[in-house]
């Protein structure tokens, strides 16, 4: 009977092998001196930076330095110019409208449509992403503003008290933007961009679709001409609906008629823009046309004094001076700001990836954290509220023929004609808000397909929206 023989050998990694038998240059690790020398060599190698490596790192973190020198002027300038002007015109009424969702003056929506855009152009990787005011983020920020700075029972719009009230509100909204930007920068430092891979498309669609209902309900009072307080907290959607239904007898018929006319114009033209987007060189700028016509009518007929129609009011000229946000509110806004940050980042990265796949380039999630973090942080000192990528304007930007981030330069607005926007009816802004949510409501067409694919994915995202109120 033969005896069995077993051979046992140590398992070596590369580092353990070098420690035991030495490296190729003959040095061994039996002495602590040799180990220290190699450790110093490794540290020197990792900490050293050549000129080429510095340039590569700079181009990686500031993408504009990579694509701008290779810009094809003759091929791209026309498309970028047309796309920039188209989206820039749209951002004027949309920025003002979404400022109402944020519970701040319309002028701050115009600022938020400018400063974050320029910064994202420098640091962002999404060539077809349109950044600025976004309905969902604006609505969530508005809830925070309403909780911390509620409307006083008696407020004279022409008094210094009203100016102080507006300053407090934009101070809180800017603080949310600053804290959101700082959170994104911390996430960038920790390289947490990979978290975007766990945000499935059904979850993003479910959240934005549910938020569309909240935005629509919140705008009903403006469309009906009702002066009602804004409800926040649990079941705010149903509280707002109940308040609107209770005050229906007090509807301002002039504002209701104006809202119906605006909807009758906006909805069909937007449908035409969507159906014939491949044939139209640029979409019909129905929003800015509506703004111009409504303002001219309000001026010619004195609607604000004759029928008590709510108007936008005074809009200061020029750009704002740098101002410190209300950082003392950080403890009160921290929880809501985390939610706002993740929603804004999820929507921004999702949109960027969709158009990147379509046009054959790549998106870097960690760099997107840096871009949006810098955008929100810096713009918060210029009285801006949180910004992110936007659904409607991104689609228009791509369909209008934009190629690169250069088209973002075209979105420059400096309010010089105060009288024109002074008489702009608030009901028209509410109609623009509601019609801009068209794409979010159309997402419900995906429900039958999602039910067939996975009933778990069908139920889970919509169930998660219950706590949103």
Q: Which helices and strands occur, and which strands form pairs?
A:
Blueprint: H1 14-21, H2 32-47, H3 51-61, H4 64-67, H5 73-101, H6 106-112, H7 115-123, E1 131-132, H8 135-148, H9 160-189, H10 201-224, H11 236-246, H12 253-275, H13 286-301, H14 303-306, H15 330-359, H16 365-379, E2 388-389, H17 391-399, H18 418-422, H19 426-435, H20 438-442, H21 447-453, H22 455-464
Antiparallel strand pairs: 1-2
Structure description:
With 469 residues, this protein is mainly alpha-helical. It is 63% helix and 1% strand. It is built from 22 helices and 2 strands. Residues 25-32, 409-419 and 461-469 have low confidence and may be disordered.
Tell me, briefly, the overall form: globular
Mean pLDDT: 76
Count of spatially separate domains: 1
Low-confidence stretches: 25-32, 409-419, 461-469
Q: How much helicity do the residues have? A: 55-70%
User: DSSP strand (E) fraction?
Assistant: under 5%
Biggest beta sheet summary? 2 strands, antiparallel
Order of helices and strands: HHHHHHHEHHHHHHHHHEHHHHHH
The oligomerization state is single chain
Q: Rounded to an integer, what's the Rg over CA atoms?
A: 27 Å
User: Helical stretch count?
Assistant: 22
Alpha-beta content class: mainly alpha
Q: End-to-end span in angstroms?
A: 80 Å
Strand order of the largest sheet: 1-2
Number of strands: 2
Protein name: Solute carrier family 26 member 10-like
Membrane topology: Multi-pass membrane protein
Subcellular location: Membrane
Keywords: Membrane, Transmembrane, Transmembrane helix
């Amino acid at each position: 009977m033969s005896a069995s023989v077993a051979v046992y050998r140590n398992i070596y990694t590369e580092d353990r092998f070098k420690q035991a038998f030495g490296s190729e240059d003959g040095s061994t690790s039996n002495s602590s001196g040799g180990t220290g020398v190699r450790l110093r060599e490794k540290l020197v190698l990792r900490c050293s930076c050549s000129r080429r490596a510095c340039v590569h790192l700079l181009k990686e973190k500031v993408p504009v330095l990579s694509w701008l020198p290779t810009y094809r002027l003759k091929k791209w300038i026309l498309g970028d110019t047309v796309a920039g002007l188209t989206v820039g015109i749209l951002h004027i009424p949309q920025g003002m409208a979404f400022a109402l969702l944020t519970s701040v003056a319309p002028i701050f929506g115009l600022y938020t449509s400018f400063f974050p855009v320029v910064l994202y152009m420098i640091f962002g990787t999404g060539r077809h992403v349109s950044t600025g005011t976004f309905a969902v983020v604006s609505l969530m920020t508005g809830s925070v503003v309403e909780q911390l700075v509620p409307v006083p029972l008696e407020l004279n719009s022409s008094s210094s008290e009203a100016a102080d009230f507006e300053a407090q509100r934009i101070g809180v909204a800017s603080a949310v933007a600053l804290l959101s930007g700082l959170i994104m920068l911390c996430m960038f430092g920790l390289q947490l961009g990979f978290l975007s891979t766990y945000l499935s498309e059904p979850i993003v669609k479910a959240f934005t679709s549910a938020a569309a209902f909240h935005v629509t309900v919140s705008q009903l009072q403006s469309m009906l001409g009702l002066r009602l307080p804004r409800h926040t907290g649990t079941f705010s959607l149903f509280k707002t609906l109940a308040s609107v239904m209770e005050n229906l007898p007090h509807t301002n018929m002039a504002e209701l008629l104006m809202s119906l006319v605006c909807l009758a114009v906006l909805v069909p033209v937007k449908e035409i823009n969507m159906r014939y987007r491949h044939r139209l060189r640029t979409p019909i700028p129905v929003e800015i046309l509506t703004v111009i016509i409504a303002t001219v009518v309000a001026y010619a007929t004195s609607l604000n004094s004759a029928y008590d129609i709510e108007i936008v009011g005074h809009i200061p000229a020029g750009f704002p001076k740098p101002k410190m946000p209300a950082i003392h509110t950080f403890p009160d806004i921290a929880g809501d700001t985390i939610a706002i940050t993740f929603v804004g980042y999820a929507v921004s990265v999702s949109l960027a990836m969709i158009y990147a796949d379509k046009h054959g380039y790549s998106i870097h999630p960690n760099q997107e954290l840096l871009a949006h973090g810098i955008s929100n942080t810096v713009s918060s000192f210029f009285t801006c509220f949180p910004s992110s990528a936007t659904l409607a304007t991104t689609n228009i930007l791509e369909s209008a023929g934009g190629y690169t981030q250069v088209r973002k330069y075209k979105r420059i607005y400096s309010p010089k004609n105060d009288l024109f926007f002074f008489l702009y009816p608030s009901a028209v802004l509410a109609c623009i808000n509601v019609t801009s949510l068209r794409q979010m409501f159309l997402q419900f067409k995906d429900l039958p397909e999602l039910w067939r694919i996975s009933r778990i994915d069908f139920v889970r995202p919509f169930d998660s929206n219950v706590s949103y109120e």
